[in-house]
Amino acid sequence: MFAPFMVNAWLTASIVAVIAGVVGFFVVLRGAAFVADAVPQGAFAGAAGASLLGVNTLVGLGLFALAGSLGIGWLSRRARRDVATALILVMMLGLGALFLSFTTEYSSEIFSLLFGEVLGVSTTEILPIAGLGLLCVLAVLALYRPLLLSSVAPESSAARGVNNARMELVFLVIVAIATSMTLPVVGALLIFSLMIGPPAAARSLTASPLVALGLSVVLALVTVWIAIAASFETNWPIGFFVGTGGAACYAVGRLIARWRGSHVEVSQA
Amino acid sequence: MSAVFRLLFAPGFFTSSPVHTALVIGGIAAVVSGVVGCFTVLRGQSYAGHALADLSVTGGSASFLASISPLWGFAGTGVLAAGVMDVIGFRRPRGRDLATGIVRGAGLGLAALFLYWDTTSTSTTGVAITVLFGSMFTIGNSAVPLVAAFGIPALAIVTILYRPLLLSSVSSDLAAARGVRVRLTGLACLVAIALAVSLAAMTVGAILATALLVGPAAIALRVTSTPGRATLAAGLIAVAATWLGIVLAYDSFNWPPSHDGWPVSFFIVVLIFVGFVAVQLFGRSRRVTG
Amino acid sequence: MAVTMAASESTGQVLAVDGVSVRLAGRQILDDVRFALGPGEFVGLIGANGAGKTTLLRVILGFQPTTAGSVRIGGEASAAAARGRGLVGYVPQKIQLDPDMPVRARDLVGLGLDGHRLGIPLPSRQRRQLVDEMLAAVDAGRFANQRVGNLSGGEQQRVMIAHALVSKPRLLLLDEPLANLDIRSAQEIIALLAKITRQQHVSVLISAHEMNPLLPVMDRVVYMAGGRAASGTTDEVIREDVLSELYGHHVDVINVHGRLLVVAHAGEGFEILAGDETAAAPAHPDHSPAGLEL
Q1: Within a domain: A34
Q2: What is the CATH number of the domain that holds A33?
Q3: C98 vs B92: CB contact, 8 Å cut-off?
Q4: pTM score, two decimals?
Q5: CB distance from B259 to chain C under 8 Å?
Q6: Is residue B25 included in any domain, yes or no?
Q7: CATH number at residue B115
Q8: For a FRET experiment, which of A184, A199, C97, C292 has its CA 20 to 30 Å from that of A157?
Q9: Nearest residue of C to residue A212 by CA position?
């Protein structure tokens, strides 16, 4: 599985894992699992529309991801966030249904957009993914402190001059970019699994935020590498392994937390 | 007057039998979704509702493959998923959403696997599209016993548990103090949601299952002042949106580009979405910003 | 209407609230509030729920626009400028912390130092030392490495105080820190606050609906009722004439063993408007002034 033609797959998947781990750390911290799930689905609808118009699907992806993200942000200021997310999501899916009704044929891209097709990434496609991924990661790292502060203690961060609304906006844009860039590799339906499973496990393992961020990335990488290897061996879709891998991460994290909890209680007794 | 009428209702609307079926089935799915949706929104479980809708569709598709009656596929998966979510979920909303996401991820991963194994179907992408976007009226006329099987228990649960549900949605501590079995009530509510979205997903598709669950209830809760009235309003709004959507879809039959009509789900979703945004923008109680 | 007595004059003021009024939804929430805080002063903002304390704090923080009046902090005319200079530390009333969050007490305090700056905190001995010192000052050293969300309410409060003070602000605002505490915890926190703020020379404005735990440490009091405020020393403000004018009807001020109660006539009986509601019953009930039942 380490043949030359697989190099692209390993490389791309690793890039995706790093992005997912870094962005996912804040997704879990801010309780934004639904948003991370909804944005790629909406992005997928955009891809369908783009292919309809004969435009590059990545453009449709990115546009709808951004529109969805910003839409959720805007609507969340007036309504509960989960309601806003659900309604923006169904609106985009509704548009997707509309677009799909205009064509009678489904391009083969669609399955891979839904469930991931890591083997199909060509060398030319790696560069934009890597570039935008790097942008996302750098953005998150640059905003690490104010984002952390406004996620943990929003009121006192406001007193310190951190604009919470702006942080939320930037965060949503980052999620949009991260999900639309990684979608073609891991699939619309499962990129969010990489963004919530490994970070959820990481935070059970350590109480330090920087260490947890690093662990998120490490666990995401491990998950993705196992997924590629398994997908290569069995020929099953990589999405399956990512979905179950993310769940496994989460389960392990929960178990460790429970063991830790009882362990700590005993030692304090 | 009759000109307006003809403008609104394209010819043949009232005599078309599929339209009748659509109105009846859609209407029932709408009412059940709207009513159960009130509790979903109150409890902040919109994500769970969406996840259950998708998962039940996955289960339904899988059941087609395994030659089990789709009824059990949809409902069984939905209730099973609800149970799993409840078991691993926390009481805190954030922990719950995380658990929901994980279950959904695992479930979709399985769906990917099933679709891959489904070598009998000629177009895996077609089934994949169905998972995500659903399609209306896949069940057909034999739906009435179906509706009874799903709709009535769902409505019954929320009616019987109305007060404990309300109290535990406001504050689980208050409810527990009053002797409410908070955990059990939560599970019952999740099962009701699973049944409601399964019904909707089977009849009107996954997108509408989520839309009808969350949208009308959110609008109703904003516009009315008591939960009882909100529940009624949600049901009415859901039905209104569905019927109006059906009318528009029928009218769109000759519209470009495919001259085959635009999808019903699109119209209904647009109506709900626009309604929601309008209520947020022009509603009385606006959140004070700053 | 405001009675301002012997407030610190002009330029040395850390906080100057000048004629602040806020009108919302047809209600006058704040009505011509004026007072000032000098350097190092410990001032209690006393009033019942609904008197306007939280709104006033929000005005000072710049979260709430005023209908009239102005606020100057350390000479800065805008709250944003004051925040930018790190002049204000704020301990909010309720803080929801997720127990699963990977953020330790020392991380939260560290964010108090540089949470507004971009980038990742680079490990520096000086930073760690500042954080450790602050944690020790609030007696939080023993749980410095625990997740903040796992701490008890009182412990979280100490961490929040450390977080607010670590950047050495000139003004510390606390919103009802004593609200859910028992008497002893309240006294501990007050003693802690008094000690630290004396050491760091910080001005403190602490809002509370009970004034008695604060009596030993307050330099002055700002007493609020119905959106109006009277400020001065305890003797100057907690008096029948001043408070009656503030409330708009007659009130009595009763001193029981050094504890102050503000009482109004209500129909056939009496209503305690301010006082030590959570205190145990007075040790010697027959010491109460004749004719009044407490």
Answers
A1: yes
A2: 1.10.3470.10
A3: yes
A4: 0.85
A5: no
A6: no
A7: 1.10.3470.10
A8: A199
A9: C102
The neighbour count for residue A15, using CB atoms within 10 Å, is: 23
Does A72 reside within a domain? Answer: yes
| Facing residue for A37 by CB, picked from B104, B132, B260 | B104
Which residue range forms the structural domain that includes residue A161? 4-192
Does C207 lie at the interface with B, CB-CB under 8 angstroms? no
- For chains A and B, CB pairs below 8 A equal 193
A9 part of a folded domain: yes
Residues of C in contact with A156 (CB under 8 A): 90-92, 95, 112, 160, 163-164
In a domain, A81, yes or no: yes
This complex has an ipTM of 0.86
Determine whether the interchain pair A161/C116 forms a contact, defined as Cβ–Cβ distance below 8 Å: yes
Q: Which chains touch B (3 or more CB pairs under 8 A)?
A: A, C
Residue B269 has its nearest CB partner, among A85, A94, A250, at A94
In a domain, B29, yes or no: no
| Cα dihedral: B268, B272, B273, B276 (round 10) | 170
Q: Which residues of A touch C101 (CB under 8 A)?
A: 29, 152, 203
Name the residue facing B94 among C63, C65, C98 (closest C-beta).
Answer: C98
pLDDT one digit per residue (tens) for chain A, 269 residues: 667 777 888 888 899 899 999 999 999 999 999 999 999 988 888 888 887 777 777 788 889 999 999 999 999 888 888 999 999 999 999 998 888 777 766 556 666 677 666 666 677 778 888 888 898 999 999 999 999 999 998 888 888 878 888 899 999 999 999 988 888 777 777 888 999 999 999 998 999 999 999 999 999 999 999 998 898 888 888 888 989 999 999 999 888 888 876 554 443 33
Domain that holds residue B170: 36-282
Q: How many domains does chain B have?
A: 1
- How far apart are the CA of C88 and the nearest CA of chain B, in angstroms? 18
Residue B17 in any domain: the answer is no
